[in-house]
Design a protein that fits this description.
The protein is α+β, with helices and mostly antiparallel strands and about 375 residues long. The protein is about 30% helix and about 25% strand. It has twelve helices and 15 strands. β10, α8 and β11 form a beta-alpha-beta unit.
């Protein structure tokens, strides 16, 4: 940014120091919301504890870890919401969210667990909405650490994995296999990038070429979520077929991120959510200046990737940007610093008398036009 000027009460002018292609898409992201200067200044570091909104709903109350209560904003520029009061409840355990939906404690439940999807689908009082999300679940390799510094080792592991079995066993069908770190819903996605399908003989051949004909021992790190634990158990079993003895290490979330930031991991399981722009999907994950906590937790370095990412940022021609991103995805899928396992589906369950709800691509579901009959 060079400067931002308020031209009038409803118009701002943004000047950048150089062309920045993703700008418009980034401005549509929640992180680009315009904040109230007076409130930010008064609250300082505690600003997050003193919410002030100009959206369709006004803040009423907040019980940390329990609920947030909102009321309709009659002065919202898009018109007053159809529903007067909204309460967001925090129900961390997936099955309990489904039970709350079944017993009508809640009208809408976000993120129904895979194990409960069929129940919601089969309940005549409920409706399940589901669509591919623009995020990924991936298996990362620490490319600065042997033996994962060898491309053949990373490719061998990808060829050893049977993704369809993970989709069925862990996601119960609510995910698709992937050929790219960019989800298909993101402009610039390359449908022709390489997709890996299980080929045990090819995997053994690549391991032998890398100098590990009998495999090796390694550790896979993950945080304590049911989905990732289940994936890790399946990977542990599948990689045995090519001689890789995998130890599963489960770590508390904060400690897990610290470990990844220090570069101490062998292999790891993580996810990434992007906005609808390839820059969001790729820049932090693969640019060498973002090693560690910046997002590039595979410690991948490729000067050509850095160059392409920077060129794509500097272009305001979407067709040109897509060309750069297409090449990036081809290189990533060949060198494979991470193996994208699946593109999971986003979902929400609701009572059958809820109208006007839709799933937002970035999981920021809008309630302005939602009503209850």
């Amino acid at each position: 940014m060079d400067k931002i000027v308020a031209l009038d009460d409803y118009t701002i002018q943004i000047t950048t120091k150089q062309p920045f292609g993703p700008l418009v898409n980034y401005l549509a992201h929640k992180g680009a919301s315009i904040l109230d200067e007076e409130t930010v200044t008064a609250a300082g570091q505690d600003y997050a504890q003193h919410p002030v909104g100009t959206g369709p709903y006004e803040f009423v109350s907040w019980r940390s870890g329990d609920r947030i209560t909102l009321k309709a904003n009659p002065n919202y520029f898009g018109g007053k919401p159809l529903t007067e009061n909204v309460i967001f409840r925090v129900i961390t355990e997936g099955t309990n969210r489904t039970i709350a939906l079944e017993t009508k404690e809640v009208d809408i439940a976000y993120e129904i667990d895979p194990i409960d999807l069929q129940f919601v689908k089969g309940n005549s009082n409920l409706v399940l909405m589901e669509q591919p999300a623009i995020n990924i679940n991936y298996l990362g390799f620490n490319t600065k650490k042997a033996p994962f510094d060898k491309e053949e080792v990373r490719q061998a592991i990808a060829y050893a994995i049977d993704v369809p079995s993970i989709i069925q066993a862990v996601f119960l069908g609510s995910a698709t296999s992937s050929n790219s770190p960019v989800a298909p819903g993101v402009p610039g996605y390359n449908p022709n990038a390489k997709e890996y399908k299980q080929n045990i003989e090819k995997a053994k051949e690549l391991l032998a070429k890398a100098g590990f004909p009998n495999g090796f021992k390694a550790k896979i790190s993950l945080n304590d979520t049911g989905v990732r634990k289940n994936i890790a158990v399946i990977l542990q079993d599948q990689l045995k077929q090519i001689g890789i003895d995998l130890e599963v290490e489960i770590i508390e979330w904060g400690s897990y991120l610290d470990k990844l930031a220090r570069g101490e991991q062998d292999m790891f399981l993580l996810g990434w959510s992007s906005s609808p722009d390839c820059d969001s999907a790729l820049y932090a994950l693969f640019h060498s200046k973002h090693h560690g906590s910046g997002g590039n937790r595979t410690y991948y370095t490729n000067p050509r990737i850095d160059e392409l990412l920077d060129l794509a940022r500097a272009s305001t021609n979407q067709e040109e940007r897509n060309k750069y991103y297409g090449e990036i995805q081809d290189i990533i899928q060949e060198e494979l610093p991470m193996f994208v396992l699946v593109n999971p589906f986003d979902n929400a369950g609701m009572q059958n008398n809820i109208k006007g709800f839709y799933l937002d691509l970035e999981s920021e579901h809008r309630l302005l036009n939602v009503s209850k009959e």
